[in-house]
Amino acid sequence: MGAFLSDAEAILETAQTASQTTAEPTDFTILVGFDGGIQMLADSDWPLDSLASHHGARTLYRVHRAPGQVSVEGRFGNQRCRLEAETPQSVARRLLAGPTATLPWNA
């Protein structure tokens, strides 16, 4: 996957950093055209395949940010990837909360 996956990882790292400094996360999509031009769309709910056809993009990355989590979905031709990361604070809260499963004899 080479540059496609490397770019997705870099976008994920950047989105993680931005999530820590932004109070209201915004989802966005990055489109890379066949000529190398880059376009960004905020809050697009179009499927990536439709965006690729409509805008003539060869590579697309959709960034979704939610409290405690960031994900990047990428498309390049027939290649697909999905990367997800949790913020350190989210992981710490989950670990400190302890087990959440209810045992049958405690029900």
Question: How would you describe this protein?
Answer:
With 107 residues, the chain is of the alpha+beta class. The protein has one domain (3-95). Helix content is 35%, strand content 35%. It has helices at residues 3-21, 48-55, 88-97, and strands at residues 28-33, 38-42, 57-66, 69-76, 79-86. The protein has a 5-stranded antiparallel beta sheet with strand order 2-1-3-4-5, sandwiched between helices. A hairpin with a 2-residue loop joins strand 4 (69-76) and strand 5 (79-86). The radius of gyration is 17 Å and the shape is elongated. The termini are far apart.
Strand order of the largest sheet: 2-1-3-4-5
Biggest sheet statistics: 5 strands, antiparallel
The percent of residues in helical segments reads 25-40%
Strand content: 25-35%
State the distance separating the first and last CA atoms. Answer: 48 Å
Q: What oligomerization state is this entry in?
A: single chain
The whole-angstrom Rg is 17 Å
Total count of helical runs of at least 4 residues: 3
Helices and strands: which structural class?
A: alpha+beta
Query: What string gives the helices and strands in order?
Result: HEEHEEEH
Taken together, the total number of domains comes to 1
Give a count of the beta strands, DSSP E runs of length 2 or more.
5
Mean pLDDT, rounded to whole units? 86
Tell me the overall shape: elongated
Sequence stretches where pLDDT stays below 50 over 5 or more residues: none
